[in-house]
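Cross-posted from the bioinformatics board.
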Amino acid sequence: MKNKSYFGNFGGDFIAETLKGPVNELAKAYESIVPSEEFQKTFTDALREYAGRETPLTYARRLTDSLGGAKIYFKREDLLHTGAHKINNAIGQCLLAMKMGKTRIIAETGAGQHGVATATACAWLGLECVVYMGAVDVERQALNVKRMHLLGAKVVPVEGGSKTLKDAINEAMRDWVSNVHDSFYVLGSVLGPYPYPEMVRNFHSCIGKESREQILERESKLPTEVVACVGGGSNAIGIFSGFVDDKDVKLVGVEAGGMGIASMKHASRFNGGSLGIFHGCKTYLLQNEDGQTLDTHSISAGLDYPAIGPEHANLRDIGRAVYTFATDEEAEKAFYEVSRLEGIIPALETAHALAYIIKQAPKYSKEDVLIVNFSGRGDKDVERMDV
Amino acid sequence: MNKLTEFCKELKNKDQKAFVAYFTAGYPNLDDSFEYIKIAMKNGADIIEVGLPFSDPVADGPTIAEAAGVALESGFKMEDLFKKIKDLRNDGYNTPIVLFSYINPLYKWGFKRVAEILKDLKVEAVLVVDCPIEESEIYVPVFKRVGIDTVMLVSPTTVDDRLRSIVEESDGFVYVISQLGVTGARSEISEDLESQIENIKKYTNKPLYAGFGISSPEQAKEVSRYTDGVIIGSAITKIIKSSECHDAAKFKIRDFIRSIKEAI
């Protein structure tokens, strides 16, 4: 009830009564089905045989050398099928949906990666798929829209509000409310009412688990810092979860600094946000004094969201993780630099974490190890970038 | 017993059906919206639901969601709303008001602060759309403490123990959502509504008012056959949207309100 849906002071189950039925149904199914040996085996097999896990932990030699500080490792979620970490969760939730007898999948998407991942899982499992995407994002991530269509999904552009991720979530929730009996809402991040924040983290926990085993194997020690970009927070929680009990490992989340904090055009919840109740949970929210959400901005669609996953809010609150930000400009620079130095084009979201690494690595010695979650590849962003 | 509870009980005892009219505050602008509210109060609405526009109206369909957007664009501020309500009361408009809101604006202002303000303004009740009973202790006791009723929602998927708890906690009336889905006028009312209402009656004698989707006097008449009242929001909003000008809207709303009151 109340305790299991909270991370300290954050989280909960703040949804309209119309959604309570399906959310409760989902919570019960999640609690009884997902921990079972049978489900876990099906899930792990799918991650391995279809999605391509285990992903490598790549030593970024040229980047490390050029910065002259800590050794940098990339956890290669970009190598996962569909090019980002999102599919771990999409497969998990779609498998659960099938177990529940649901035939229609609804999803929201920002950058499009979660939409693509869900459309992919649906194609693979034979489920109907409807993806809601803000009209602004439909334009700036056109490649992903095309992919979703090819995968057989219906993409519905959302014209309401700011036409980005939060509005796509609004529309997806409205759809779910109207179609509770046959539909399952595959939420793409560690947000929303219970059980989503916990469930999504669990489906991504393979990232952290693998990383920890891999780094111990390679370096015979734990990393100094584990770094990830944070939009809703799923890739970050995924990798953090592997190290949260290792007190000496610093966990760093990098938010979207947009055009700088002072400009008020950013998506850094911890710089100017305050406690609010939004999209089902109590968390840090960028809002005005009337509790209306602020229009956020980031060059990357996936980080462009006014609320942060409640588990992140708690990790920060208890001092287990720290959060910083990278501006659009810094992310862009990192995008070009890592492409040239390592031959991997990062997603603009990931580039935020890389921007932080570029600043941070020189402060350490070669004895230190930094792992950055390479959450996705940047093919979807190539069109918009200068060459 | 608080004012709204008393009011609704009396109506039910007299076997009079209640007509609750919903208006998005600030749509299309604050002054006009309050003129419409006054017209509704003068022409037969028993209770007015004043909807606080929110940036992310998840439970609302396109009509009311759009109205909220327009209200915010036109510069809606909660402070101004409270001033308007104060003027309304000072001008002698005493029809009961339910403040209808998503939880975040009230949370941000502070429930205690809002409760005190509403008490001052003689707003009788509050209805929070997105806070289920399991989380309701965050606001319900705060409002109850100053004598403000907290109205609760039940939906077609609310059953058994939860249904029992919710109707027990709901003050004034129980808002019965008649459809699966979001707010929005529909051409057909779900045929399951009557059985839904009969089921709820097993758990309470409190007045049951049905809302979501009712858009015509005929529908209102039919629904009021087996409920204690009807709640209409989107249909009224649509009239405002489609009227050529403010004055035309005033007339249309007046006529619509009267036609509903007559029908039930």
